[in-house]
């Protein structure tokens, strides 16, 4: 009888471990959480401010030139504002100012992310002609001096992301395109 009960518990644990994220670091996780109001972010935010504001996070900062910035600081996290998450990444430009913030979530958390953004910043607008990594429309919210974006919805059990981009960074990219055209 004990072997049968052990087997049943093992199967139930295996189901939840696989389907609910217990083993991928989002439910059973010893990483710190991050509380971050996107409307308080700005392009004036510097890397040193990030590291001092969130000293408990295990930051890995390095130079990496991408469309998001010239330098990135990443850290594994357990949650963003109460929503289970995997990691966050802060991208800085060559002047050391914040360009973009990215949060990664399990797809199962996507509806909670959208709900949190709707609660804090109102109903989103759909970005015309653009789709996210899941082939779904991208929705945007004005949040302080920048824009938050996410896919309208996600498929399957892959990664869901939410980004915040500074208004200054958006303007610089827009004017660069205009000058290059």
Could you describe the 3D structure shown?
This protein is globular. It folds into two domains: 30 residues, no CATH class; 150 residues, Protein Transport Mog1p, Chain A (3-Layer(aba) Sandwich), CATH 3.40.1000. It is built from four helices and ten strands; from the N terminus they run ααββββββαββββα. About 7% of the residues have low confidence. The strands form two sheets. Strands 1-2-5-6-10-9-8-7 form an eight-stranded antiparallel β-sheet. A hairpin with a 5-residue loop joins strand 7 and strand 8. The protein is α+β, with helices and mostly antiparallel strands and 181 residues long.
Elements, N to C (H/E): HHEEEEEEHEEEEH
Q: Any guess at the CATH architecture of the largest domain?
A: 3-Layer(aba) Sandwich
Q: Which descriptor suits the 3D outline?
A: globular
CATH class of the largest domain: Alpha Beta
Beta-sheet strand percentage?
Answer: 25-35%
Report strand order across the widest sheet. Answer: 1-2-5-6-10-9-8-7
How many distinct helices? 4
Main β-sheet description: 8 strands, antiparallel
The tally of structural domains comes to 2
Could you tell me the mean pLDDT? Answer: 82
Structural class: alpha+beta
CATH topology of the largest domain: Protein Transport Mog1p, Chain A
